[in-house]
Amino acid sequence: MTAILQFFFVLFLTAAIIVAVFLYRIWRQIRDARKRFEDELRNFNPNATQYDANASRQSSNSDSPTVSDRRSPQQANKKIFGDDEGEYVEFEDEK
Predict the structure, then answer these.
(1) Which domain holds residue 18?
(2) Which terminus of the chain has a smaller tally of CB atoms within 10 A, N or C?
(3) Rounded CA separation 19/12 (Å)
(4) What total of structural domains would you count in the chain?
(5) Continuous segment of H or E residues that includes residue 21
């Protein structure tokens, strides 16, 4: 009886180790992919830092001055025109 319990315990322990190694590999692949993505993003824009919702948005060109937008994202994405303005213009074809 104890031999059977020892066998099941070893079998359970082996299965738990295999599942743990499998989950670790998946986690490591996701972590490495995220790191590669962040590195590519930094290489694409060396001045980029991690996203901060309260940070100002800046645009710069070597020939023009720096433009800073210090509005909150809610204000920046606010609709400029009302629902009844600028959506549709009635016109008649000339004959």
Answers:
(1) 1-43
(2) C
(3) 11
(4) 1
(5) helix 2-44
